[in-house]
Amino acid sequence: MTTTSHQNKQWPRRAAAAVVLAAVTGAAAAPAAFAAPATAPVRAPAARGALISVTPVDALDRAGVTAELGALGVDTAGVRYGVRAYRLTYATVDPKGRPTAATGLLVLPRGGPVRPDLVSDTHGTVAHRDGAPSGGKGHNRLTPYLHASAGRAVAAPDYLGLGGGAGPHPYMDTRSAVTATVDMLNASRTAADRLGRPLTRDVYATGFSQGGQVAMAVGRELSRGRDGLRLRALAPMAGPYDLSGSEMPGIADGRVAPRTAVFYLSYFLTAQNRLHSLYKDTAEVFRAPYAGTVEGLFDGTHPEEEIVAALPATPEELLTPAWVENVRSPRGALRTALRANDGACDWKPDVPVRLYAGGADTDVPIANSRACAADLARHGVRAKVVDQGPDADHVTTALRSAPQVVRWFDALR
Questions:
Q1: What is the CATH number of the domain that holds 375?
Q2: What's the pTM value of the predicted model, to 2 decimals?
């Protein structure tokens, strides 16, 4: 998840919803010479993780990376190399396990180790398909560039239904986000080999907002040792790990800013309905006139600011009375959907874990990170919650945390 509560004047402001700011994860649009291809869906072969295509989308020298990151107030002390970025198209599966294709961004350092380690960097909430890392619109290349400029390769999946993938995005469906991410990691290793830059088996997992939750769940999958990949560390940032106990209560009691809550609820409910049958008619959940328009807003073609402008200011204006109450005390299919996407921290990592969060975050309250740490503690794992301070909103948390994660990964290596 991601929003626009940040007050730093250097951060591009996008209507109150900029949920897309998955913000600290992207960069400027690709130059014309490396323009990303059209986002038409592609047919996938049967084998999960098989590489379908590689397309160059960007190239920056060290000074260029420093300029891109520095313009947003990111600490660039760790920038050591330029980067080359590629859009990958690869085979994966949809939420029902059927073969499909997805896209993502592979970023390689222009220098550094002969065989770099690999960072899995999962992005925050994006509604427009071109806002995903390989699309080049928005800011979802910043952390991939930051990590690659430190000497590691980066695999940044677009997830299903974003970038060049087919169909609507199954927003906050943890299981399909994990399969898309793991398959992207394998496709990235194949692509790196073909590009003459083979990678080690080591994976460092990070992600912001929605991607923070995905990173924890990806870590659990990698810990099972099924793909020949070796998890080395987990460093998620501001993730909604605890939907039932922290995020949804935060929406109900105002800890999540109302306009942000409206965006998240609209996206979550319409996407989860395709997986968990929350409603038969939008009018059961959404008030008029929103019942007639809300699903179409999340078809992947509308910019976030346009979506926000088309939605009301508060959950009470968006939802029917019955669903206002359902959000306060989830029951039935909503409760099932929340529980299906909880538990990302309910396991025992055998690698170092740090959880980055901000005390002033009104998108993903810090209670999510504390709940994650508590889950890990029940399994005997001590995970440090790195609190970026009482002034750190969602974006500030990302801006401060991302360079710290890079330094921590450097120290672990």
A1: 3.40.50.1820
A2: 0.91
